[in-house]
Design goal:
The complex is a heterodimer of chains A (204) and B (174). Chain A is α+β, with helices and mostly antiparallel strands and 204 residues long. Chain A has helices at residues 23-33, 85-103, 110-125, 153-167, 176-183, 188-195, and strands at residues 8-16, 46-51, 67-68, 71-80, 131-140, 145-148, 170-173. In chain A, strands 1, 2, 3, 4, 5, 6 and 7 form a 7-stranded antiparallel sheet that branches. Chain A is extended, with a radius of gyration of 23 Å. With 174 residues, chain B is an alpha+beta fold. Chain B has one domain. Helix content of chain B is 45%, strand content 26%. In chain B, strands 2-1-3-4-5 form a 5-stranded antiparallel sheet. In chain B, helix 2 (12-28) crosses helix 4 (125-155). The longest helix of chain B is centred in the C-terminal third of the chain and has 31 residues, at 125-155. The chains are: A alpha+beta (204), B alpha+beta (174). The interface between A and B is large, with 40 and 53 residues. Strand 1 (8-16) of chain A pairs antiparallel with strand 5 (109-113) of chain B, so a sheet runs across the interface.
């Protein structure tokens, strides 16, 4: 799901703080520093990083390719390995059998089982490629506004973590309270009333 | 500074009240809807409304789906004290149509379909396609933000009591 798909989702953010000038150069450095790194041949089961909007599977931010008109356009890529539980079970059972034969034990302790299972998952992780998911982003720096093209909780949380890590700016998600507080142009008195508001009832 | 998770949960009722109010305005006063859009034609309820009714120890969720159907069921739920927590909307502006849903507790916009745009065949087409899509998304985002702003201003004012009375009267007249 993304910016050019036929159906999309948008989560709105306000960005708190300013970047060091020249802004485009600072954004470039932040994107480059946290570019997505391949985990297909490693034991890692999940990773996330920035990628290019136009070429999400071959990230490259050179030549201000993330600048479009007055916007910054790039994407978050989350790579995750999903090993089917039945495959884990099969390999675990095989390894358990080998371990018992080798050691002469009758059964494994809880800790040994956990350790063996972790080991099985790590070995399988090096053989199973990660599934990439790409989430587009439009950042209007001058307006301190950003759209993240997904409502998925995990994707939004990963985005918020990586954005802060990359640019040292806090993205504030707009939900009922923050949207009222940050975008409704409230006076101090109105803001106080908002803080103390309680639910209405629409029943007689 | 308020904690984000606490604030989200504490005030999510505002988003549900917003959708309930929006449903009331759509059904009763279209004139209040198109203030930021010179080409505004209409905003109508689409094919899905989700309501929630809190009981003493449980929460009932009522999902009403289907084109132009189930409004009676929605009104009965409202009469029993439910609020709208998710709303699918049809927006017409100029000669074009948009379709989208809003979730009350988060104000997230989803299932957003904008008018058809030109296809992207070459790399050079991408920039134009993004800008065109941006413009089309902006129409919906601006509409939602404007409506929410109007709701919040009303909600924290002394006028809310009168508005609530109007909503209650409408719910019970159906």
């Amino acid at each position: 799901m993304g910016l050019l798909t036929s159906s999309t989702s948008i989560t709105q953010y306000r960005i708190k703080g300013k970047l060091k000038t020249p802004v485009t150069e600072t954004v470039y450095k932040g994107l480059k520093q946290h570019i997505i790194k391949d985990i297909d041949s490693s034991e890692a089961q999940k990773t996330f990083g920035w990628t290019s909007f136009e070429t999400p599977y071959a990230p490259d931010f050179k030549g201000s390719s993330f600048v479009l008109d007055t916007y910054f356009v790039f994407s978050l890529r989350i790579d995750k390995k999903n090993i089917p539980p039945k495959i884990i079970r099969k390999h675990f059972t095989e390894e358990e059998k080998k371990h018992l034969a080798r050691t002469g034990q009758e059964y494994l302790s809880r800790n040994e089982k956990r350790s063996l299972k972790d080991n099985v998952i790590n070995v399988l992780s090096t053989r199973i490629p990660a599934t990439p998911n790409v989430f587009d982003i439009i950042w209007r720096y001058e307006e301190a506004s950003l759209w993240f093209f997904s409502n998925l909780k995990e994707a939004n949380e990963d985005f918020e973590t990586l954005f802060f890590r990359s640019f040292n700016l806090t993205p504030i998600r707009l939900f009922p309270y923050t949207a009222a507080d940050l975008t409704a142009e409230l006076s101090d008195a109105e803001r106080d009333r908002l803080k103390n508001i309680s639910p209405s009832t629409f029943m007689e | 500074m308020l904690d984000v998770a606490v604030t989200y949960n504490k005030y999510k009722f505002l988003g549900n009240e917003f959708l309930t109010w929006l449903f009331f305005i759509i059904e009763n006063n279209q004139g209040r809807l198109g203030k930021t859009d010179k080409e505004f034609v209409s905003l109508d309820i689409g094919n899905r409304i989700v309501l929630e009714k809190k009981n003493q120890d449980s929460v009932d969720t009522i999902t009403v789906t289907g084109d132009d159907a189930g409004l009676e069921e929605v009104m009965i739920s409202l009469q029993k004290g439910a609020v709208v927590i998710e709303l699918n909307l049809l927006y017409k502006s100029g000669d074009y149509d948009w379709k989208f849903s809003i979730k009350g507790e988060s104000l997230n916009i989803f299932s957003l379909k904008v008018p058809r745009t030109g296809s992207v065949e070459k790399k050079e087409d991408i920039e134009g396609a993004v800008l065109e899509k941006m413009y089309l998304y902006e129409k919906v985002v601006m509409l939602v933000n404007m409506l929410y702003k109007e709701f919040i201003k009303l909600r924290i004012s002394n006028r809310w009591k009168k508005e609530t009375a109007g909503i209650v009267s409408w719910i019970n007249s159906c």
